[in-house]
Every structure is written in C-alpha cells, then in structure tokens.
From TrEMBL:
Coiled coil: none
Designated name of the protein: phosphoribosylglycinamide formyltransferase 1
Entry's Gene Ontology BP terms: 'de novo' IMP biosynthetic process
Top-rank EC class of the record's enzyme: transferase
Entry keywords, A to Z: Purine biosynthesis, Transferase
Length: 184
C-alpha cells in the first residue's frame, strides 16, 4: 500500500516497476491529488481520508487506521505523504511503515530537507529510506543514497537529482521486500 499527498512521482516509479502487482491500494489525505489519478489509471484501488472530515488529529488517525486495516497491507509506503502518522497507526503497523526522505538522515529531518541542506552549505546530501516511528524522520534507517551538491545548485535542481535516486532506492528496496519479505 502507498500513501501519497501530491503529484505521485514516487508512486509512478512503483507503478512502472515489477512490484506493481503487489500494490493493494493507494491512499491520500487530499481528494484531488495527482497520485490518485496515477493509481486509478493503473487500475489500483484508491481511497481518501481527509483530515477535514474529522474533528481532530486523533480521530483522523483512527479513520485512517480503519481504512488501512480493511486492505490488510503487509507494508505501507509513505511516498510524499505529507501527514505525520499518529500513535495508533504506528502501533498497528510498527516495522511495516517506510518513508523516503530527501536528505541523509539524521541530518535535515522534516519537510524542508533539501532547503536545509543547501542552507547548511554541505557538499553532499541524498535520500534516505527509513522505518516510520513516532518521531519526525527518526526511524531506523534502511538504506541511503548520496547525491553531491553541485556549484550553482538551487533547491529545485538539487531536489530533482535527489528524486531520481529516491525513486530508484525505493523501487529497489520494494523489489527486495517482495522477493524476500525483508529489505536486506
């Protein structure tokens, strides 16, 4: 299962890969996100659990957990999903939720990893695949790829190079998981 909030470029990499046949559904917190259209075009079930439909975060998390449970996923991939999952979801799927992040964690966690890396003046950054835990980008690291920061890079150019590695890293990890049941 994949959770996404935006354009779905990470999702598209999964849809274009051999692991497509293992994908049970794509969910979002945004009703009109492009990721849902990509999934629908590929014949994958979709769902939306909008925070606006719930009185608070805890209720939204319970609603999300209910929908997730109805699909019985072996693994949940947060691929550009811009919501922090609550304790009930993490507890139910501990060790089975993964996320990609556009930085070499533990450096530059949070929503602005690329911008923060540039602001820090690092010469390399990259992408991290990690398990989701109760913190923000603090879960155990599964794998990383390094991307050099080039002279003249701005946030957009660096992020595009990171996304290329991020897509390949995610698909490679998912192919291993589907074949072996683990990321190793």
């Amino acid at each position: 299962m994949v959770l996404a909030s935006g354009s779905g470029t990470l999702l598209q990499a999964v849809l274009d890969s051999p692991v497509l046949s293992s994908l049970v559904a794509v969910g979002s917190d945004v009703p009109d996100c492009t990721a849902l259209a990509r999934a629908t075009s590929a014949g994958i079930d979709t769902f939306v659990v909008s925070p606006a439909s719930f009185p608070d975060r805890a209720s939204w998390n319970e609603g999300l957990l209910s929908v997730l449970s109805s699909f019985s996923p072996d693994l949940i991939v947060s691929a550009g999903f811009m919501r922090i999952l609550g304790p009930s979801v993490i507890s139910a799927y501990r060790g089975r939720i993964i996320n990609t992040h556009p930085a070499l964690l533990p450096l530059f966690p949070g929503a602005h990893g690329v911008r923060d890396a540039l602001a820090a003046g690092v010469t390399e950054t990259g992408t991290t695949l990690h398990y989701v835990d109760e913190g923000v980008d603090t879960g155990e690291i599964i794998s990383q790829r390094v991307v050099p920061v080039l002279d003249g890079d701005d946030e957009a150019s660096l992020h595009e190079r990171i996304k290329t590695e991020e897509r390949d890293l995610l698909v490679s990890a998912l192919e291993t998981f589907v074949a072996t049941g683990t990321f190793i």
